C-alpha cells in the first residue's frame, strides 16, 4: 500500500496523487457500509496496481478539518479575493465570506486585487479597517505583478480554498504564482460587468512550492443557516467579538441595549459603520430564519 492525497473525484472514482503518480481509485465497500465518503483533500492509503495506475482506497487518515461547502478535507486556510473594480468591491459579500470562514475556523487572508484600477484609495481603506481587526490583507495586481510573491509565500505548505465572486482574478492570481497551471481566465462581459463561470469541477491543485489550492468560487453556499440563534453571530465578527465582553448584558446583541460597548466603539470609530450595518443585516436574516420554525 502507498499513501497519497485525493485531488479529484468524478463519478465514483477518486484520483489519488502519490509519489509515483496519480492513481484512479475506487473506494472500498466498507466505506459505504460505514457511511464514510472519501473527500477531496483526504490523505489516504491505497492498494495500487502499477500496470494500469488504478487502485482501491483502503484507509482514510484522520481529518484535520472538514469543510462542508464545498466538501473538502484538511483545508487550512481561506484566501478571500475581491477586486476594487470590475466587479466593484462588495463589502457585504466580504463580510459574509468572513463569517463563513470564521465558522469553519480557517486561517483567513483577504486579497484586494486589481489594485491597478484603484484611484479612490479603496484598497487602502480596506487595508486599514481589516488589518485593525486582525486580518492579513494583501493589495495585489496581476497586471502590475504586485504582491504576487507575498501571496506565493502565503500559500506555501497550506491547503487553501480561494473564495470570492467570479471575475475578481482568482485564476489569474494562481496563474501568476505558477504559470504552468494555465487556468482558464474569463473576460468580463462588458454588458453585465460580471465574470463568466469558467471554473467547473472541484480539484486540488498542487503547487511547485508546496501546498495545495482549490480554484473554486469558494463557499458553494452563502447561506447563514448554520447559525441557529442570533447570539451566535457575533462570534464570527472578529471586531465585535473583541468588545462584546464589556457590554452590560451578557445577552447583548448590540442593537438597542443600554451600556453597549460595541455601540460605544462604533461611535468612537473603532468599529466601522459598514461592518456594523452588515452585522445588523445578517442578524435580521437569522431572526427571519429562526422565526420560521
Ligand atoms: N486590471 C486588472 N485585471 C485583472 C487583474 N487580475 C485579473 N484581471 C482580469 O479579470 C478578469 C477575470 O479574471 P479571472 O482570473 O478569470 O477571475 P476569477 O473568475 O476570479 O477566476 C480577466 O479578464 C483578467 O485578465 C488585475 O490585477 N488587474
Ligand atoms: Mg476562475
Ligand atoms: Zn453590546
TrEMBL record:
| Keyword Metal-binding attributed | yes
Domain CP-type G as annotated: residue spans:
64-222
Task: Spell out the subcellular localization from the entry.
Answer: Cytoplasm
Q: What's noted on cofactor binding?
A: Binds 1 zinc ion per subunit.
What GO CC terms are in its UniProt record? cytoplasm
EC number(s) recorded for this UniProt protein: 3.6.1.-
Q: Say what the protein does.
A: One of several proteins that assist in the late maturation steps of the functional core of the 30S ribosomal subunit. Helps release RbfA from mature subunits. May play a role in the assembly of ribosomal proteins into the subunit. Circularly permuted GTPase that catalyzes slow GTP hydrolysis, GTPase activity is stimulated by the 30S ribosomal subunit.
Q: Which family does it belong to?
A: Belongs to the TRAFAC class YlqF/YawG GTPase family. RsgA subfamily.
Q: What is this protein called?
A: Small ribosomal subunit biogenesis GTPase RsgA
Lineage of the organism: Bacteria, Bacillati, Bacillota, Tissierellia, Tissierellales
Q: Which gene encodes it?
A: rsgA
Amino acid at each position: 500500500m502507498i499513501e497519497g492525497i485525493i485531488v479529484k473525484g468524478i463519478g465514483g472514482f477518486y484520483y489519488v496523487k502519490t509519489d509515483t503518480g496519480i492513481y484512479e481509485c475506487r473506494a472500498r465497500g466498507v466505506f459505504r457500509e460505514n457511511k464514510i465518503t472519501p473527500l477531496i483533500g483526504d490523505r489516504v492509503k491505497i492498494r495500487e496496481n502499477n500496470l494500469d495506475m488504478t487502485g482501491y482506497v483502503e484507509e482514510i487518515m484522520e481529518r484535520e478539518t472538514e469543510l462542508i461547502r464545498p466538501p473538502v478535507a484538511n483545508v487550512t486556510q481561506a484566501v478571500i479575493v475581491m477586486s476594487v473594480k470590475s466587479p466593484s468591491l462588495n463589502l457585504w459579500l466580504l463580510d459574509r465570506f468572513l463569517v463563513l470562514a470564521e465558522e469553519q475556523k480557517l486561517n483567513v487572508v483577504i486579497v484586494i486585487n486589481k489594485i491597478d484600477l484603484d484611484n479612490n484609495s479603496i484598497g487602502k481603506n480596506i487595508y486599514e479597517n481589516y488589518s485593525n481587526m486582525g486580518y492579513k490583507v494583501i493589495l495585489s495586481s496581476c497586471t502590475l505583478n504586485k504582491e504576487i510573491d507575498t501571496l506565493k509565500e502565503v500559500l506555501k505548505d497550506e491547503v487553501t480554498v480561494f473564495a470570492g465572486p467570479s471575475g475578481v482574478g482568482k485564476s489569474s492570481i494562481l496563474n501568476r504564482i505558477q504559470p504552468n497551471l494555465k487556468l482558464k481566465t474569463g473576460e468580463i462581459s462588458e454588458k453585465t460587468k460580471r465574470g463568466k463561470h469558467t471554473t467547473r469541477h472541484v480539484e486540488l491543485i498542487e503547487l511547485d512550492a508546496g501546498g495545495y489550492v482549490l480554484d473554486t468560487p469558494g463557499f458553494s453556499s452563502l447561506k447563514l443557516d448554520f447559525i441557529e440563534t442570533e447570539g451566535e453571530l457575533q462570534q464570527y465578527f472578529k471586531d465585535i467579538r473583541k468588545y462584546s465582553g464589556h457590554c452590560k448584558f451578557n445577552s447583548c446583541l448590540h442593537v438597542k441595549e443600554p451600556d453597549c460597548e460595541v455601540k460605544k466603539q462604533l461611535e468612537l470609530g473603532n468599529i466601522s459603520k459598514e461592518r456594523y450595518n452588515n452585522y445588523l443585516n445578517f442578524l435580521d436574516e437569522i431572526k427571519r430564519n429562526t422565526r420560521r420554525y
